[in-house]
Amino acid sequence: MSNKRKKLLEEERFLVKVDRELSLSQSDLWNWLTKPELTGQWIGPWQPVDEENLQITLIQEEGSPTFPAKILEFNEPFGYTLELGGMGVPWVILVTVAPSGQNKSLFSIIQTIESKEAVPATQAGWEFYADCLIAAIEDRAMPRFETYWQSVQ
Q1: What pLDDT, in 10s, does the model give residues 16-40?
Q2: What are 125-135's pLDDT values in tens digits?
Q3: Is the pTM of this model over 0.90?
Q4: What class, spelled out in words, does domain 3-150 have in CATH?
Q5: How far is residue 114's CA from residue 14's CA, in Å, rounded to a whole number?
Q6: Are 96 and 110 in contact (CB under 8 A)?
Q7: Domain limits of the chain?
Q8: What is the spatial distance between Cα 65 and Cα 59, in angstroms, rounded to a whole number?
């Protein structure tokens, strides 16, 4: 882990982490996490603004809102760190990809958050999006967020 990532993760008190192992090569998984035509199938398309900034439309959210994001670190094909804005305090999100066997890869989403109370809802949200990624890769119907939300109610 780079010093920049480590510093970002140490600045906040609480972390949410979601892991999934997928039957994809690291490069294929990387494409699903970075190519707008593929991200558009599970979380939403990304539109570059400049070399460091982009707009992401979250298609699974009510109204499909678009949010600004800043690329803090991009380390192909191992991961990236984004600062997602437009929701009050910016969210710092770390995405990692690692090989985990022949034609398998481990995918992780790690988010720093400020309050312990926000952990269950944030965890449910990233579990949902990780399962949306799997559904898109496997060409299955998207999961319903209500199922994940019920687990924190």
Answers
A1: 999 999 999 999 999 999 999 999 9
A2: 999 999 999 99
A3: no
A4: alpha beta
A5: 6
A6: yes
A7: 3-150
A8: 7
